[in-house]
Amino acid sequence: MAENTVIKYDFRKKISKAENKSWISKGYVLGNINEKGAESKSIVVKKDELKRAVKQFGKNGVFELVGPDSTKQHAMLKTIQTNPKNYDIHHVDFQKVLLTEKVKADVTIKYIGTEFIEAKRLVLNRLIDAIPVIGLPQDIPETVEFDVAKLELGDNIYAGDIKFDSNIQSELDDKVIVASIIGSKQSDNVRASVSEE
Fold first, then answer.
1. Angstrom distance (rounded) from CA 32 to CA 37
2. Distance of CA 95 to CAs 78, 81, 153, Å?
3. In a domain, 173, yes or no
4. Are 90 and 112 in a shared domain?
5. What pTM did the predictor assign?
6. pLDDT given at position 157
């Protein structure tokens, strides 16, 4: 595990508004560590440290959480809650994981070659943004790429077209359409129907 995946945390001993405000004013983010079959632990982590870690390793990164007593455990991000006013992180949930046990996660589809689609005055109509997968925590990628450069009007992209390494298993049926190539007029009609709803 790389050194800069470490996130240090402290315990929240008293769950009160006053204590929460005190931690937040000191630059911390409130959070929990969840573990299967055990009670969650209320913690705080430094906001700057959390942001750096998430920016570098993404939401599917495996982090080494280090407690005030130097206890270490591996965890993945379960949820990140942000303030709707400024989009700043104000709460985070970690899920404790074992590097030898498979977990479920969503892998975002990253489409490349979209400029070639746009040059043909076509539109990539995204229907599903992420693929649910199963794999060992350290093997799950943040994104999976799919090249759309050679696709034409009417082409569909199926879940089975999105390829993962052999150690990652997709949970989406291969026949599910995740995106399609449509004309610009079709795109306008789709946006119009959505706005009417």
1. 15
2. 6, 15, 42
3. yes
4. no
5. 0.81
6. 99
Q: What are phi and psi of 105, to 5 degrees?
A: -160, 160
The Cα-based distances of 185 to 79, 151, 181 in angstroms read 37, 18, 12
Spatial separation of the C-alpha atoms in residues 14 and 18, rounded to whole Å = 9
Residue type for position 50:
L
Q: Are residues 72 and 114 in the same domain?
A: no
Co-location of 187 and 108 in the same domain: yes
128 DSSP β-pair partners: none
In a domain, 197, yes or no: no
CB-count burial class (<10 Å; 0-12, 13-18, 19+) for 133: buried
The residue that leads in pLDDT, 151 or 189, is 151
Nearest CA among 33, 56, 55 for reference residue 45: 33
Structural domain for 67, as ranges:
3-96
Same domain? For 7 and 90 the reply is: yes
Cα separation, 104 vs 85, in Å, equals: 31
State which of 70, 96, 122 marks the end of a domain.
Answer: 96
Does residue 162 contact residue 178 with C-beta atoms inside 8 Å?
Answer: yes
